[in-house]
Specification:
Blueprint (H helix, E strand, L loop, with lengths): L4 H23 L2 H7 L4 H7 L3 H20 L9 H16 L2 H12 L5 H27 L3 H24 L15 H4 L3 H10 L8
Helix pairs in contact: 1-2, 1-4, 1-6, 4-7, 5-7, 5-8, 5-10, 7-8, 8-10
Length: 208
């Protein structure tokens, strides 16, 4: 049975995501997306009237997928310090995946032409996770907003550099398959993050 309505729209989005990642924005055509999605151009344009609209929708899809996989620090255990370490490690692990690195590069490449789309992607990748971490630190360590945000910024900086930067420049081997939480300790060296957490956060969280 042919896909219709919302099911077809979702199928097109998932297909377009792969095409954009593989080909980049400029080389991606609506003809290719329609062919890969096994639908007509008429149906494609009925859901997405232009390639720009399709690209924006793909970035919104990637945003939701990423934030759903990352979750919040509270989802990584009861020990606050280890939860912060695991959250930052998971952030890095997700970004070291080949598909994520290609999406990252795609967002940067289109930043000048589509600053709104690039800003949306940046918000999802950095701003929202950093705010989740700051809120968790403020809650578990009973620190004020400024202290919590500064700690979160420094911890994310430690997670990003040098591993993610190296991967973006091709100096680090990326993760070939989508990384799962179960392989976090294998995919990412968590020890530098533990050192950073020990330096930046109180040794014992305040009693709640």
């Amino acid at each position: 049975m042919a896909r219709r309505g919302a099911e077809l729209r979702e199928h097109i989005l998932w297909t377009a995501k792969d095409v954009f990642i593989e080909e980049g924005f400029e080389r991606t055509s609506m003809d290719v997306v329609a062919a890969r999605a096994e639908t007509s151009k008429r149906s494609l344009y009925a859901h997405f009237p232009s390639k720009d609209v399709l690209f924006q929708s793909v970035l919104e899809l990637v945003r939701e997928l990423y934030l759903g996989r990352l979750k919040t620090p509270a989802d990584y255990g009861d020990d606050p310090a280890e939860a912060v370490v695991a959250f930052c490690g998971r952030f890095l692990q997700l970004q070291l995946w080949t598909a994520a690195l290609r999406t990252f590069r795609l967002g940067v490449a289109e930043a000048e032409r589509r600053p709104d789309a690039a800003a949306l992607y940046h918000e999802a990748i950095f701003d929202i996770p950093q705010q989740r971490l700051a809120s968790y630190i403020a809650d578990r360590y009973q620190t004020d907003a400024e202290t919590s945000q500064e700690a979160a910024k420094l911890l994310f900086g430690r997670a990003v550099y040098p591993e993610l930067v190296g991967a973006l420049f091709g100096c680090r081997t990326p993760l070939a398959v989508r990384p799962e939480e179960e392989t976090l300790a294998v995919d990412v060296d968590l020890e530098p993050l533990r050192v950073a957490v020990a330096r930046l956060l109180p040794p014992t969280p305040a009693r709640r």
